[in-house]
Design goal:
Strand 12 and strand 13 form a beta hairpin. Strands 2-11-14-13-12-15 form a six-stranded antiparallel beta barrel. A four-stranded antiparallel sheet has the order 3-10-8-5, with no helix packed on it. It is α+β, with helices and mostly antiparallel strands and 365 residues long. The chain is 31% helix and 36% strand. Helix 2 runs antiparallel to helix 3.
Length: 365
């Protein structure tokens, strides 16, 4: 487990040993405060900070914004060369207009077919009525078998013609619908493709950096800009896999920044990413400052100690007086086994095996 160096001044102020020099050969354990913590390092990030990419390839024609500018959601930021896309859109628009002319022709055919369907339906109704009437007459021998069959055949033909007309009408309507939909969709696709050449912001915020120059060939893999919320920052920290099981939401953090020499800031753990980075063997966590420093910028480096546990009024000795993590010298050559508890960068808690008034000796290297 790793511990941050800047905790030593806190602990030394609460634990004073009986010696006057740091490298004394003998001491007596004293009661004091000891803090267990986990070291983490990382950077300052803006809230919702993200890197902007284009979805298309082309030459960057124009930057529409400046670094440091406040931007709104959906605002146009970059214009990429789109002559080919514009031509494709114009072709699609012309095809759509032609389809409208074709649709009117199909619509006329539909009107004609609807008339034919109605006529076929009327004919079927009439022939069905004649068939029913002659069916009754036939029972009494009032019509010959041949004449009856002719009437029956006329009814069947009328029914077939009506069904055929309905089918043709349905096909014409489907043709009209498909024709309109196909050309309308094609136009929308080309308009969307052309709009992709104008790169827009997904969120409102501040433009922190522009990463390309006008005239540069960009692809969907080319980062264009860095955007994030204005005046809203968080800590993005990496914690070693060996320490991660100790970290929990809500824990307090002491943070130092290279930009603020000698100052320590309070923060709180508020997000833990539950997957390890296989390359660095670390977990990412996020924290927010309890009180923001006066001025912050994205990507400032930070070092932090996540407070795991604080114990007061405990018996402590310097780590340099402990042998093999379990023994102390109660005489210059007599070892005694002790039980240890928490430890920080310099000191370690003694749970059993040693009393405050006893003298222990520093082992020789």
């Amino acid at each position: 487990m790793r511990y941050s160096y800047f905790f030593s001044f806190v602990l030394l102020s609460t634990t004073i040993f009986s010696c006057s020099k740091k490298d004394s050969e003998e001491i007596q354990p004293k009661l004091g405060t000891i803090t267990q913590s986990v070291y983490a390092s990382g950077v300052i990030k803006s809230e919702d900070q993200y890197t902007l990419f284009s979805t298309v390839s082309g030459v960057l024609q124009k930057k529409l914004v400046l670094v440091g500018q406040t931007i709104s959601q959906g605002q146009s930021l970059f214009q990429i060369e789109s002559d080919k896309a514009a031509l494709n859109t114009e072709n699609a628009r012309l095809a759509y207009q032609l389809s409208q002319e074709s649709s009117r022709y199909i619509q006329d055919k539909i009107s004609d077919m609807e008339t034919k369907v109605q006529m076929a339906k009327d004919k079927l109704t009439l022939d069905e009525s004649v068939l029913k009437r002659n069916k009754n007459i036939k029972q009494y021998g009032g019509i010959s078998e041949v004449d009856y069959e002719k009437i029956e055949l006329a009814y069947k033909n009328s029914k077939s013609n009506y069904e055929s007309a309905l089918k043709q009408l349905s096909q014409l309507k489907l043709q009209l619908k498909n024709e309109q939909s196909r050309n309308n969709i094609n136009l929308k696709i080309n308009e969307k493709s052309q709009s992709d050449f104008t790169v827009k912001s997904a969120f409102s915020g501040e433009l922190f950096d522009v990463l390309v120059k006008e005239g540069t060939l960009v692809t969907p893999q080319t980062p264009l800009a860095v955007i994030g919320k204005k005046n809203s920052f968080l800590l993005e920290l990496d914690v070693d896999e060996n320490d991660m099981i100790l970290v929990e939401l809500g824990q307090k953090i002491l943070v130092t920044l290279d930009s603020y020499k000698g100052k320590v800031f309070d923060a709180t753990v508020d997000k833990i990413y539950p997957i390890m980075d296989e390359r660095s063997r670390t977990f990412k966590i996020e924290a927010h400052f309890d009180v923001l420093p006066t001025k912050l910028y994205p990507n400032l480096t930070a070092e932090a100690n996540i407070i795991i546990q604080i114990k007061t009024n405990v018996l402590t000795i310097p780590k340099s007086f402990l042998i093999d993590n379990q023994f102390v010298l109660v005489d210059k050559d007599q070892k005694r086994k002790v039980k240890i508890g928490l430890n920080d960068y310099q000191n370690i808690e003694i749970l059993e095996g040693l009393k405050a008034e006893e003298t222990i000796y520093k082992p020789k290297k």
